[in-house]
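Researcher: Let's do a round of design. I'm pasting the structure tokens now; please hold your answer until I've finished.
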């Protein structure tokens, strides 16, 4: 019952090389889709039709709270007392402090800034 100890290693090597080729071809197939998405050509209807409240629920509620009371981020009730709508838009687009840039789509930033300015 002496078996060749190299056979399991050879099988693992063949399986690994096959997996590398499979994943490479899969990546090449996804390349066009990722490029179109990066250019903004593959926007979904949901993102295009999202209103400020939906964007808030998706991107902002984790830091600013469900009732705009703050948490990790500052409270958003009365934000218009501290910032103008243009300053709010700038924060939404470019980020500020711990808030990263790009959480709100650039085409929705002005609408979102007006909505936030109206929160009381």
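Researcher: That's everything. Go ahead.
Model: Designed sequence:
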């Amino acid at each position: 019952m002496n078996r060749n100890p190299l056979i399991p290693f050879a099988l693992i090597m063949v399986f690994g090389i096959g997996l590398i080729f499979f994943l490479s071809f899969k990546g090449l197939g996804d390349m066009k889709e990722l490029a179109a998405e990066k250019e903004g050509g593959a926007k979904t209807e949901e993102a295009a039709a999202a209103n400020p409240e939906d964007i808030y629920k998706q991107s902002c509620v984790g830091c600013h709270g469900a009732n705009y009371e703050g948490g990790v981020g500052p409270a958003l009730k009365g934000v218009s007392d501290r910032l103008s709508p243009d300053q709010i838009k700038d924060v939404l687009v470019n980020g500020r402090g711990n808030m990263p840039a790009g959480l709100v789509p650039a085409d929705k930033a002005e609408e979102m800034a007006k909505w936030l300015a109206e929160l009381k």
